[in-house]
Design goal:
- This protein is mainly β.
- It is built from 2 helices and 6 strands, in the order E-E-E-E-E-E-H-H.
- Strand 5 and strand 6 form a beta hairpin.
- It starts with 7 loop residues before the first strand and ends with a helix.
Length: 111
């Protein structure tokens, strides 16, 4: 798979390592305005999501996974969204993200 189609799962602490790259962020929606959404990442950090201007953002559930380009250490420009329902254990999500980024596995299984 080419690197242009890779979207690594991150939390707010890992986001700064992926600026300029496509990422996936499982999160809880906190607040929404016309062009941004504030979300709580799986590790409890707050991330700002820039919504696309030319399409309707399909954020319908309290828990979503945002796919987008990391703009800076706290901002993602949304490319897509997957609704994850009314309940999600963010601790389990965060534990999984930390395992993905563990040096024992990252370049072997999840690169």
């Amino acid at each position: 798979m080419s690197s242009e189609h890779v979207s690594t799962r991150v939390n707010s602490a890992r986001l700064p390592d992926f600026v300029g790259k496509t990422v996936r962020l499982a999160c809880r929606v906190l607040r929404r305005t016309a062009d941004t959404v504030a979300v709580e990442a799986s590790d409890g950090g707050e991330v700002s999501i820039q919504l696309p201007r030319d399409t309707m953002a399909n954020i319908e559930d309290p828990y979503v996974e945002i796919i987008g380009k990391a703009i800076d250490a706290t901002t993602i420009r949304m490319l897509g969204c997957t609704n994850l329902g009314q309940e999600l254990d963010l601790k389990i999500v965060n534990d999984t993200i930390e395992l993905i980024h563990d040096p024992r596995f990252y370049n072997k299984m999840f690169s």
